[in-house]
## 1
Amino acid sequence: MSQLPIMVIEHPFGARSREEIGAIAERLVDELVAGAVAHGDGGARTASNVDAQAARLELPADAWAFHRECLRRRWSDGLPMIPPTPERVARMLAASGQRADTVLASLAPAFGVTTLERVAINAVMAGCAPEHLPVLIAAIAAVADPAFNLQAVQTTTNPVTTWLIVNGPIVEELGINGAGNCLGQGNAANATIGRALRLVLQNIGGALPGDMDRASHGQPGKFLFCCAENEAQSPWPALHVERGLAAGDSAVTVVGASGTLNLNTHSKDADELLACIACSMAFPASNDYHYCGEPWLILSPEHAAVLAGAGYDKQAVKQRLWAQSTMPAGHFARRDYERTANARRAEFPNFSPDTEVPLARDASAIGIVVAGGPGTHSVYVPTFGETRAVTRRIDPPDRRGD
């Protein structure tokens, strides 16, 4: 990408006035024309003429020395990593049944050529076992889908991160946790698969913290955010079935999650429970209101049982939450009111302070999964707003590694 003409927009950008944005746009148009004339047609490189083979380097064998070298080269998430020796990478690749130079995607913002070998290297460094690789491959396909809007997710000041939800037979096969503490520590599959995707997005996608990754604060989920759905304790069809796949398929859904909010209510009344959850979802600084988002809810098995016992299916739950979480536009700060009016003008051509603004365009855009262990806690997961969840089937490899 080094030969592409680059237009520079000074950071930060989001809070600038219309006049400032107009002046910047005029300057960039002049620069763009000048750059196009100067570079002609020969500036860009495509995946077909970029060397897709990973470089071979000699690095310290000592664990601490290797850790320090990874920190120096900015390959690391800050935690110690496993050295990707040729033998370890070969074992990882053998589990895929594909060629090492297979190009899986081109990941924003650096648009690095994401070959299977490069993914395998990052998976080894994250601590993945070879059998975890098919999940990672499917997750990469999901984030590369234009609907996910990876360019924005990787470069925004928002704390958004990639949340992986795994469904199907592979959950039991790999021991991915969707029960108690499924968003916490202690499970190797959850931890290493989630971590591996973060390393791929950083080391191949180019989202280095403080450089292309401009998150104001970030969040702990940017280290890793991966769980399974607790299908065994869900009263409703599994997420991947809801999204069009067969129950016997294995799948991963990737969500652009801005964080988590614990919802602790002991209510055993379905209508009261829904009203409490809907009220908790509604806060005026939410990107979901401003950009017509796709908010998510992780219902505990206990809360899901209360709702199903009262006759609610998943769509009915979504409809109630969507209707009861609207917010008068007058509750937004002035600039937030203006950006919401602009972003959602197709829905609300007569936008006013009295307009009841929903979190999403319609009830079906709210995502619901059942996960977690015993207890009266559920989790609200607001999103970046300008992103959509993507589900991909996890294709079984031709052969497994040792």
## 2
Amino acid sequence: GLKYSLATGNWGDQKKAASAKAGVSQVLNRYTYASTLSHLRRTNTPVGRDGKLAKPRQLHNSHWGLVCPAETPEGQACGLVKNLSLMCYVSVGSDASPIIDFMTQRNMQLLEEYDQNQNPDATKVFVNGVWVGVHSNAQQLVTVV
């Protein structure tokens, strides 16, 4: 079962080859340290390799700084297999409430309590890309955090 799937990369019922998913697992490339890192940072777009659609092969604007625009294989997989850029770092998600509570104790106004007419020059505060509040003295908040 599991050993067969890891060894071959074919996941699903062995007797029903049509319903099995192929290429789910791969053997890690260990030729050099650089090739190992490149293999671990690879992303795969699940689109047929023989298709001539250009859109899935192109970089999206949201990939800026995250996906390397140059490192992709030649041939049918060109643009469908992408690599994370050199300085890209993927972190494990964490709860944002402790940092929001910390900043609230240091005079950050939560978005629900904010009145733009009362304090129009307040600086927006984002946590993990989400607008959570505003602060009247952003430099002080940055120094404390």
## 3
Amino acid sequence: MSRGTYDEDMRRMEARESAISERLQNQERSNDALTKENVQLSEALEDMRLDRDELASDVEKLNRAREILTGHLRDRDSQVEELSQVSDTYRGLVADLQSEVTSGQIEIEQLRDGIRLNLPQSILFPSGSVDLDPRGEVVLRKVSGRLISNDYRIEVRGHSDDRRLVRDLAMRFGTNWELAAARAASVVRLFEAEGIDGARMTAVSYGRFAPTAGNETPEGRARNRRIEIRLIPNTRQGSDGAGAGETAGAGSVTGDS
């Protein structure tokens, strides 16, 4: 091989090596760019995943909020319907018992939790008796006629003054507790006889412990000897005590009104 040929071969070899080296460098640069792009894509994908998870969480929160709002609206609709029913019943009772209300014999109040009727013992029972007076039966039948068509829970509460029972009554009933309870039961029995489901009704006695007036005067004691009828919408879970359920301002009718 001549010197000239050798030199030419070396130049061609060096040129090939230079080209290969350049291609390798280009490939490395391309690989670096692809690696960088892959990292960027991975980061973008992670950001999208986080955004998706955050969006899903937001959607879940919105769905929960919507369910709560729907529940509140349902409750509000139920309360409006209940109040409308109570108001209709209240107005109906006032109309049915207008003469008794006007004369001061009966008090009717619309409360936050239903309706309360106060009926003095004097129009329901003869003195010392648990048997309903004919006048009292007439009044109670007016009340029962208004209640048959709805589903109110009916709580009949017997109340008394603080005086001890006379001998004959004490021998029969023991104390005012029992006398008031027996009178409340008489009212419930009449309601049941008039067609009201007994499962809707409760008879209880408060004895002398829930007065509406002082017991120092005959007038006060007469006010305390009474039957209280509570009408409680069936959506309510329970009634309150004798002193609760204050007037809501929607209505109160007495003989002095």
## 4
Amino acid sequence: MSHEIRTPMNGVLGALSLLNSTALSQNQREYATIIEESTSVLLRLINDILDYSKLSSGSFSLTTDVFSVESIVNSVIQSCPPRNPEIEVKSIIDPDFPSHVKGDPLRFRQILQNLVGNAVKFTDKGYIHVRTCFKEDERDDYSVTVEVIDSGIGVADEAMNTLFAPFTRSANSATKRYQGTGLGLSICKSLAELMGGAVGYRTNPDCQGSIFWLKINLAEGA
């Protein structure tokens, strides 16, 4: 069912991309851009609902592959540029971090994309740092921690207890600027637990911003 739903939406986005590459009047280009942005939002909504449904039913499965954590972190950062170009966005990774690990790269990216995307959404000035470190255990596996640290608007005290509950959004999320399904963090939590890890939140002690963290176990890469 997910394939039947996602494929037409991707087809619409592809057609809109081709349309935008043709000669259009200013009004036509504005209309095409609005349709493309709205379709992208709808596709994200569909993806979130489908993923949440599979996770809730226990039918979600992970894959195992060798990948580079550093490459995925850098790729995610590049794909989530802040609206304000003066915001400092950078990756801080343990210099001894292994070049390759084994796990599910797609779901690792999905969790990180959500956490970094949220930081970008709620940060108007200052910085967004992605800090990655690890500990090696006696089996030569790695306990990996990724922290997304920002100087954004933070999380209200009354929202902290339900932050990772499904369909939960902050008060600011009700505005068009902060729109979303309210499923992103819940999906991150379920995916992290499926990978034998956890996600969490704490207030940034240096400002009113946030620190969202992910801890998962990854095997030694080949």
